[in-house]
Design goal:
It is a single chain. By secondary structure, the protein is mainly β. The chain has one helix spanning 72-79; strands spanning 12-16, 22-29, 33-39, 42-48, 57-63, 67-68, 91-95, 98-101, 107-115, 118-127, 133-134, 140-151, 170-184. The protein has a single domain (12-184), classed as Lipid/polyisoprenoid-binding, YceI-like (Lipocalin), CATH 2.40.128. Helix content is 4%, strand content 50%. Strands 1-4-5-7-9-10-12-13 form an eight-stranded antiparallel barrel. It is elongated. It starts with 11 loop residues before the first strand and ends with a strand. Mean pLDDT is 89; it is low at 1-6.
C-alpha cells in the first residue's frame, strides 16, 4: 500500500496513465438489456488548481480502435461506417471549457466532446480528484471518476434496426463512465 502524499494545494499538471485508465459505455440492446463496452486507448492531461477550479483544465483523446465489447464481430461492426467509422474518425476527443463545483460537492466539467467528427457540448459529473498518493516507484498519482449521458444520434451515430416486436435494436441514450488515474508531471 502506498503512503499518502501531501494534499493538493497548488496548481499541478497530470498525465493520464493509460494502463490504469478506461472509458466505458453502456447502451440498451434489443430494448431488453444493456450492452457494455470500453476503450483502453485513453490519453490526456489535467491541469488542476484546487484553489480555483475555474483555472483547471482537462483534455483527453480516445483511440476508437481500442473498443472492446467482448464480441469481436460486434466490435468490427462498431468500427465500421455504420457507427464510429474508425478509418475516417480514429479518435474521440474532449477538452474542458469550464470546471465548477456542484452543490453536492462533486465537480462538473463541461466542454466540447467530438465523436464521429461531430462536436457537442457535454457535462461530466466528476468525483475526485482523490488525495494524491505516492506509488512504489516514487510517482505521485490521483484518480477521478466521471460520468455523463449522451444521445448517440446527436453525434451522427444513427444506425439502427426496427424489431418485429416493436422498438429498435440499439438504444439512443449512451451512458459514459471514465475511470482515470493521473501521474503528476509525467
Amino acid at each position: 500500500m502506498s503512503a499518502a502524499a501531501s494534499p493538493l494545494t497548488a496548481t499541478t499538471t497530470w498525465t493520464i496513465d493509460p494502463v490504469h485508465s478506461i472509458a466505458e459505455f453502456r447502451v440498451r440492446h434489443l430494448m431488453i438489456s444493456n450492452v457494455r463496452g470500453h476503450f483502453t486507448g485513453v490519453i490526456g492531461k489535467l491541469t488542476f488548481d484546487p484553489a480555483s477550479l475555474a483555472d483547471s483544465h482537462v483534455e483527453a483523446s480516445i483511440d476508437v480502435a481500442t473498443i472492446d465489447t467482448r464480441d469481436p464481430q460486434r466490435d468490427t461492426h462498431l468500427k465500421s461506417a455504420d457507427f464510429f467509422e474508425v478509418e475516417k474518425f480514429p479518435t474521440l476527443t474532449f477538452s474542458s471549457s469550464r470546471v465548477t463545483r456542484a452543490s453536492g460537492g462533486s465537480v462538473v466539467v463541461s466542454g466540447p466532446l467530438t465523436i464521429h467528427g461531430v462536436t457537442r457540448e457535454v457535462e461530466f459529473t466528476v468525483e475526485g480528484p482523490t488525495p494524491p498518493v505516492k506509488d512504489p516507484w516514487g510517482n505521485t498519482r490521483v484518480g477521478v471518476s466521471a460520468s455523463t449521458k449522451i444521445d448517440r444520434r446527436e453525434f451522427g451515430l444513427t444506425f439502427n434496426a426496427a424489431l418485429e416486436t416493436g422498438g429498435v435494436m440499439v438504444g439512443e441514450e449512451v451512458a459514459i463512465t471514465l475511470e482515470l488515474e493521473f501521474v503528476q508531471g509525467a
